[in-house]
Amino acid sequence: MAQKKPKFYVVWRGRETGVFDNWDDCQKQTAGFDGALFKAFDTKPAALKAYKDKPHVHIGQGKNGSAKQTGASSLKVPGLVGSPIQDSLVVDAAWNTATGDMEYQGIYLATKQKLFLKGPYSDGTNNIGEFLAIVHALALLHQKNSNIPVYSDSRTAIGWVKKKKANTKLEETARNTELFDLLDRAETWLQTHVYANPVLKWETTVWGENPADFGRK
Known about the structure:
Layout: E1 8-13, E2 18-20, H1 23-30, E3 36-41, H2 44-52, E4 68-70, H3 78-81, E5 89-95, E6 102-108, E7 113-121, H4 126-143, E8 150-152, H5 155-163, H6 177-192, E9 199-201, H7 204-207
Parallel strand pairs: 5-8, 8-9
Antiparallel strand pairs: 1-2, 1-3, 3-4, 5-6, 6-7
Helix pairs in contact: 4-5, 4-6
């Protein structure tokens, strides 16, 4: 079997820009980054030359034809998603529709080791659980001085984290006071801390079920 030729990836717009010699490094800079621009080249000299050019010079050009501008919609396309970054923390939440109880957990993807499990909390919602799980993961990684990515399959929760505010319509009751205290703490943490961890969408349609899923569907 012929050995697969290496590719070199130019990232014009991403968390970090430059020329990368493997797909994993390219994905770390572009996955989940709104408006990312990148393209694969067959040789390093070609990639280095392209990096000095404006990206529009190479977008859609040549046999690669694969200069990609990624956003929320393009991440749904399997060819643009690639594989999940193994050195990452994946979170998920479970909400019992009968009791209203919610819990959430986080695992280290490479080994499937469970890093935390919280709950159940009374009178919650799945979105609140997803939001708290992401913030819990960010706080944990911040303590460990780790900048690995955090994956969640909830676009809503990811959006809340970006805005540093849980936009829930859930009403506070005597049963969920603890949960609202956690929300206040999570929002305060986001507003008072700076983190370098990418918060990325777990692409269930491409990668399969979120490994942190509780398996109760």
